[in-house]
Known about the structure:
The protein is α+β, with helices and mostly antiparallel strands. The chain has one domain. It has helices at 2-16, 43-56, 62-76, 80-88, 109-133, 164-187; strands spanning 19-28, 31-36, 39-41, 94-105, 134-145, 151-162. Keywords: Membrane, Transmembrane, Transmembrane helix. The chain crosses the membrane at residues 6-23, 113-134, 154-175.
Amino acid sequence: MNYFLFILTIILAILFCPIPLKLKLKYINKKLEIFIYKKNLNLDKKTKSNKINIEKKEEPSKEGGIKRKFSKDKLSSIDIKSLLNDLIYNKFKVKMKIKSKVDYSLSDAAHTAIVYGYAHQGFVLLQLILKLFFKVNDFKYDLNFEFNKSYINVETECIFFISLAKIIYVCFLVFKNIKRKDKVKISQPV
């Protein structure tokens, strides 16, 4: 009996305890770097291999075409409007923290000043959009500008607090909306 309770508490801890997922994006000197838990995802290797594959231009196999059609059918059967509605009014949203720093400059001082105002409004709009799908605990941004130069540097750190139960619930919402659209198609008269 004690082993059963011990295993049950471990399973519940795994399901409901949030695990922080740390992402960091850097765009400096026209180079994008993505970090997950301080591990750099090298995008240069992937782009080189994609260029090589495009140059080869191999003929697609019939099996690959069937799989693509199957996934497109599944994606087209999702009722997007009701899925977005379910995700927006979800009580179990993923918690997140965002810290962003933007350094920029444009060659004209007037354009730099105009972009400064739009950038502040853009951050407010981004925060409102993120609040629809996530529970945003902390949203900080630092916007710095410099006149008469031409560069842009962006650093963003995101921490998502994800639990397995929330992932399962979001997957349930997606599958519920797939079935809902299939039922609508069946009930429509031919």
